[in-house]
Amino acid sequence: MAEPRRREILDALAHQERSVGELAELLHVAQPVVSKHLKVLREVGLVEVRDDGRRRLYRVDSRPLREIHAWAGRYERLWEERFALVDEVLAELALESPDDAGRQ
Amino acid sequence: MAEPRRREILDALAHQERSVGELAELLHVAQPVVSKHLKVLREVGLVEVRDDGRRRLYRVDSRPLREIHAWAGRYERLWEERFALVDEVLAELALESPDDAGRQ
DNA sequence: CCAATGTATGCCGATATCGGAATGTGTCAA
DNA sequence: TTGACACATTCCGATATCGGCATACATTGG
């Protein structure tokens, strides 16, 4: 239930930094709700804050997202390698016994 | 609280498919716990199952991870562009008024 | 200093999630 | 068919999280 809200916030901050009130208006939720989610995102390091008078401007910190990027990319590569390996094995089998090629 | 467990499971499945019992032993948790997490991961589409006799072999499905990869990559690019823009502006300022370059 | 604005925090009830224990379902082996 | 094995599902209590509301804190303007 929380994840979608947080993604909304991150998406809203993707292109520009925004104040808490702006975010609350964009997401059509109460201000305290936004503040709480921002607190979590801050603690996890996904967003950074900057004081601007009585407002607080939030922006995303791309470094943790880069880690997520790398993390997801690891699996992607691993399974691409695996699929490539399967292809190799199938190709070898086809060479060794052409009659069995393509069988289930 | 759930996320770390699920990441553990995904990491355990990163290189090879495993049975529920194997996962339970690797993570030092009870079998029902593993089954429940696997159910969630299945519903979200992060893992796939294959029946092998009385065992069920799980493996990761890299396609959703590819989406995560793309999602995180979006932010990465956005902010790299932003930093590049800042660099450009600074460079232009340095050209227009060399005396001000490097000031706070 | 005071009032207004912008934000954060504390408390609340509702809901979701976790892990544990017991139980249900399906498959193999004898 | 029966018992053993592998796994899934259900029920339970404890804990976490969400959103709403009221309120506290901080900054600005007068």
Most extensive chain contact? A-B, 17 and 17 residues
Oligomer: homodimer
Quickly count the domains of chain A. 2
Broad CATH class of the largest domain in chain A:
Mainly Alpha
Alpha-beta content class of chain A: alpha+beta
Write down the secondary-structure element order of chain A: HEHHEEH
Apparent shape of chain A: elongated
CATH architecture of the largest domain in chain A: Orthogonal Bundle
User: Which sequence of strands runs across the widest sheet of chain A?
Assistant: 1-3-2
Percent of residues in β-strands of chain A: 5-15%
Question: Spans of chain A of 5+ residues with little confidence (pLDDT < 50)?
Answer: 88-104
Please provide a brief summary of the model.
The structure is a homodimer of 104-residue chains. Chain A is of the alpha+beta class.
